[in-house]
Amino acid sequence: MGQNIIYLIPVFGVLALLFTYWKSSWVARQEVGTERMAKIAQSISTGAMAFLKAEYKVLAIFVIVVAILMGLGGNMEANSSPLVAMSFIIGAFCSALAGFIGMSVATKANVRTTNAARTSLGKALEVAFAGGSVMGMGVVGLGLLGLGLLFFLYNNMWGGDINKVITVLTGFSFGASSIALFARVGGGIYTKAADVGADLVGKVEAGIPEDHPLNPATIADNVGDNVGDVAGMGADLFESYVGAIVGTMVLGAVFVGIGGFDTNDQFSGLSAILLPMVLSGVGIITSILGTFFVKVAEGGNPQKALNRGEFISAAIMLVATYFIVKWMLPESWTDNNGFEYTSTGVFFAVIIGLVSGLLIGIVTEHYTGTGTKPVKSIVNQSLTGAATNIISGLGVGMQSTAIPVLILSVGIIGAHYYAGLYGIAIAAVGMLSNLGIQLAVDAYGPISDNAGGIAEMANLPKDVRQKTDKLDAVGNTTAAIGKGFAIGSAALTALALFAAYMTTTKLTAINVADPKVMAGLLIGSMLPFLFSALAMNAVGRAAMDMIQEVRRQFTTIPELTGALNVMRKNEGVDPKNWSDDDKAIFDRADGKAEYGKCVEISTRASIREMVLPGVLAVASPVLIGFLGGKEMLGGLLAGVTACGVLMAIFQSNSGGAWDNAKKMFEEGVEIQGKMYYKGSDPHKATVVGDTVGDPFKDTSGPSLNILLKLISIVALVIAPMLAS
Question: Which uninterrupted H or E stretch holds 487?
Fold first, then answer.
């Protein structure tokens, strides 16, 4: 029976990839729209693929070098280093492939969403969500297929040594983590450099929308939505997904041959190891089922449609989980330390993970959603300028850490109460079991955002932009909730990997009174600050290059200068009522903006700047582990996890709140009995705040999620060498 399950796990991954192919083909068959729309979409797609090509060239060198070092660092008999290196390469390849698939379809779905919005909001939602579902199912499909095939291969090689099998599998998670970090940091630098240039020079200085065709940074900005929020977020959650499964498998391996497992377990001790993969496989099926419920009638609420799909999928998953856990695990068993486990306790731990993720998402929405009390407080403070806007946004971000940390703390204690360290790990799997549809909803956001940009650049009727803006507004909420899930899953996954590290190195406790442990704790707490500084400064340098380029084009390209002067002269006047001379000057500027220069600046800057943060994340645990020992590395893991979670929540929520405060002014907002709109002084203050928040929420904040897990998985990979 156990062997049959091992055969079945890769089938779940193949099923997800077949669904991905079906949805991708359906998106490709939808109409593109006008010739101008197709040209704009092609520019976005070309820019996105140029970035991926440049990024993957650098990452290929990194992967090959690290794999060689890993392979030469040991031998097959002692620690299977060559096979760990092979797993590392496969994990990196699967993560990169998931990003490529998601990016290629997202850049097809954006223009087709715009075209669908010309006739129907419901059709536009269908196209955007279909594009997002390709990213979601591609991530879970490749993750489970890669893990399932490698487990099958290594189990056949060393069926009697399950610990060796799991040790080699950690290389797959390391490969996924490495690609994720570079994709998140590089994508975040790219998108924010473009966004800052489009915002500050376009909106504040020139007084035109960031998506206006006269804005040279607009194509780079739309490319950035894809490289940051599609490929970047996909790689982030791919890594969480794989890391949670591997961490749980490491802890599950402890139970092989313990107590009732020998007599009651129909899988000869593999149950606890196979459970996270089986739950993830069933999660693929429930996610696919949930996608069929995401539909909205004309005039309906897209948010309700997306929520319906997620909640139905989660409900089916909960019911299925109960029967899977009861079927796979013994009624009760005891480990070597006398801790008693029950299958019901494991089920409760999974529920705790699901509920914790949902609650963190709700809290994130409260602190970042349009019209909520925290965001309104930033809006009100913007009345007195950018300084008070920034102070208020920082305060909201800091305050927003409290409730999520309490939720995580209760979740950790609850999961441990019901199922020990294994419970914490399986809670992370539970949180990510429906990742297919969660990520589909999240990737839908940047597709909708791109659709609005294409509508603006193609000069489509205002009602088209209104439809895409309605989808985009929902996308901002789903992105906030997605970031909440990413942070929550990062914390639980890092803890699971931490527990797996302690188990592998035979560390029973971390003594903070030990000077080495305290030193490791402080160094670990410092790393999120240093990492954030590197990411923020990188965005600042790249943004300076972008701002200078946009200013150069506005001042040296006569057609652009003339068009901007016409817009300023006719401010508030309907373009239909402009003079013929003004219309002619404006029309001559069409196509004169040098979009490619801005795309090139963002690409070059992101590739250059992503290297140092990546090296820092990989090198830190290796140096501390081999120079300071396993206890000091344990302190480092504790410090980076605790501090990193707080910094990630703070930065992501500050940035999200600043962003939606700006959007409230763009829609029109009343403060002290007076209405304020786009272009007003308070709105300009929120643009400055949003510019500060952009690298918070889209570069350094989300990248910290990966930093936690990457450092933990590197520690786990080298753990066998530190065990003695």
Answer: helix 462-505
